[in-house]
Amino acid sequence: MKLSETKHRATLVLAVKGRIDTETAKEFGDELLARIKTQGIDKVVLDFSGVDFISSACLRELMINFKHAREAKVALLVAAMQPMVLEIFQLSRFDTIMPCLATIEQALKTQVALQSTPAKGARDTNSVVVHFWGTRGSLPAPLTLQQLRNKLASALVAGAGMNLDTIERANSFVESLPFHIGGTYGGNSSCVELSAHDNNVVLLDLGSGARLAGQDALRRLAGRSGEFHIFMSHLHWDHIMGFPFFTPAYIPGQRIRIYGCHDQLENAFRRQQAEPSFPVDLSKMASHIEFVHLELGRSYHIAGYQVSTKLQQHHGDSYGYRFEKNGKCVVYSTDAEYKPENMINIQECVELFQDADLVIFDAMYSLADSVSVKEDWGHSSNIMGVELCQQAHAKRLALVHHEPANDDAAIGRSYHDALRLEELTRQGERLEIYSAYDGLEIQL
Ligand SMILES: [Zn+2]
Ligand SMILES: [Zn+2]
């Protein structure tokens, strides 16, 4: 690999020749960083016309330096790639992150808006933000010591020989690792939050993820009283177990409305906190708690959302919700079994999902399990999620209610299977798929 540079006022063009692979990527990255940090430079153009091969090590260095450049308010662009190099760049989706121009002239003319990452909380008020607080099905499933050690060991092997002597470098490296090594889906049971205006807080289900959701809402309210609107899919234990640890419920002045279609709605919550199951009876919680029964088939206007419900197939019934606001639509359909041969059920589901911007879908099992050993267990699969969303022309699909027996690698495999199926069966628009993890936020 050979480097040469030319300067055009505040723009520096760095021409690279040869291969950027495991052997040369580090040197390339260090040289690039030095250029980004050069005084008086506000743009660096990488002339890749002489590069005949790039490996993932090169892409990693580009990613790390792209972040450095953004922090230093320096525009970083790549230009004049050879066809094979360009294809690798595009396959890795780097063209969606970093400006990539056909010629050096174009790169020199291109103005890049150097936006810093928006501050947390600073959002487009018309958008709907979906935050996943708990994505695990049936039972909370914390990471085990052995799983944690396996992740650390894999990360150390992946980073062997790399210069990771600062927290910033180590963090960038960790971010570049595959999610099942550098991340985790998390272990909290079902709880999802939809953004709301003023002092309103909208939550879907109260699994163990509700503990963190409650704390975060109180932090945002900063001492003010909040209106909590909580929609229950159903009353199975994994969906209500977070309520005894939902701090807002203990604070006088907070108003909590729990909505649901089940006749047993209030009873299920009272029973959970009655002796001998829990030391604090629900009647001793100091907030104002109300249970609101929703009628199936009716549409409601709550906390700025148009809300409608649909009965779903699950033990003791569950209800799917459709939330609409400012032309955006989120569907919450967890703990629901969709049998491929039950056409009426499929048709109803497609109506619920129709043109949704995001469908949050119970993908607990593989399709094979859900139609054999786990038939009638009340859950669905990644495959059904993709098919139903395609039929309903939904834009995004978030897989949730992950099987507690599955580790991060297994959930990752199920996610990649869904991505591949979508690719193979796509007709028209691409369905964007997420495998939701605790802490994931999707802005619509
Ligand atoms: Zn469940
Ligand atoms: Zn259930």
Write the layout of secondary structure elements.
Blueprint: E1 2-8, E2 11-20, H1 25-36, E3 43-54, H2 56-71, E4 75-79, H3 83-91, E5 100-101, H4 104-109, E6 129-134, H5 145-158, H6 167-176, H7 179-182, E7 191-194, E8 200-204, H8 210-221, E9 227-231, H9 237-240, E10 255-260, H10 265-272, E11 288-293, E12 299-302, E13 305-312, E14 318-325, E15 328-333, H11 343-353, E16 358-362, H12 367-370, H13 382-391, E17 396-400, H14 408-425, E18 432-435, E19 441-443
Parallel strand pairs: 2-3, 3-4, 4-5, 8-9, 9-10, 10-11, 15-16, 16-17, 17-18
Antiparallel strand pairs: 1-2, 6-7, 6-19, 7-8, 12-13, 13-14, 14-15
Helix pairs in contact: 1-2, 13-14
The chain binds zinc ion (ZN) (2 copies).
Percent range of helical residues: 25-40%
Radius of gyration: 25 Å
CATH topology of the largest domain: Metallo-beta-lactamase, Chain A
Query: What is the domain tally?
Result: 3
User: Whole-number average pLDDT?
Assistant: 92
Strand order of the largest sheet: 11-10-9-8-7-6-19
- Uncertain stretches: 115-122
Bound ligands, each once = zinc ion
Class based on secondary structure composition and strand pairing: alpha/beta
The counted number of beta strands is 19
CATH first level of the largest domain: which class?
Alpha Beta
Task: Determine the number of helices (DSSP H or I, runs of at least 4 residues).
Answer: 14
Can you tell me the CATH superfamily of the largest domain? Ribonuclease Z/Hydroxyacylglutathione hydrolase-like
